[in-house]
Amino acid sequence: MVASVSLDATVQLRLGTLELDVTIAAGAGETVVILGPNGAGKTTLLRAVAGLVPLQAGHIELDGAVLDDPATATWVPTEARRIGYVFQDHLLFPHLSALENVAFGLRAQGMRRRVARAEAGAWLERLGLGDHTHNRPSALSGGQAQRVALARALALRPRLLLLDEPLAALDVSTRVEVRRELRRQLESFDGARLLVTHDPVEAVALADRVVVIENGRVQQAGTVADLRARPRSRYVADFAGVNLYTGVVRSDRLRTADGTELTVVNDTGVDGQAFAIVHPEAVAVYPAPPVGSPRNTWAGTVGDVDREGRRARLRIDAPTPITAEITENALVDLGLRPGSEVWVSVKATEIEVFPA
To answer: Which of 70, 195, 222, 326 has the highest local Cβ count within 10 Å?
Structure first.
């Protein structure tokens, strides 16, 4: 449970073509995962909070202390902020051992060399790297280097931990192991955490709350369950694994932006601009027009086929594109592959509408 608000920030700045205007908060003991497409401003947000990019307006407050506020000419330099930063490419010093990399920040804070080395060694032991203290980064695996970078950040005993796609450089098998370790370490860290990722699995595994940034603005925020239940953009819908349509609802009809009309069950009385979501498993797929002609039926062509265990996700290209999820057996029985002509149908009761 979040004890109290630790980070309270409104970041407003312009950097090249990016105009960032984001308000974000994180509580002590809370992991806030930041999602968004490339160029949305996620990394710039972290760098601004760390003091590496100056604000033009807004404020950054950590544990009640103001770190940056252009209106009052308040600015605390990066090295004086109680913030740990784990970069995507780790940024370890190549000429220093793992031990000296972790001890570097402690030494920079004035800690005596022997004490700093002992503290660094304890952190490396805690992260399972006791046998690699004398190795330089070139002798470490990607997962080991990531843990050294995490140890270096945590050794400073920060109140806020910033992680910029910390697992992106790892291969799939290593990522699973390191993600598990990262989650364990985050759970033991009592400060606030902001973590940038593109990986939905990381978001599900690590997030207490998710903030989605698009075009420099917060598009949506909430738990993973919140985003799945009410996606408010195509990016969020893709993340949540659901089909999202926008349009106008009148009575029991939804007219989408491309002119398609769908029959819906409008229990909540939505009238006007609306979102509609359809879960992929609710989409029926046929090799020919279905018998009985269900009202929400249209033709399309199979695009991508992604197998996930005993299930398969099909992207159906059509004027109203849709993603369906069927069993592996159904995929084989229907002989479906990219380029196959199919028909899809969705029951009105499977289309959930809510106000835009």
So the answer is: 195
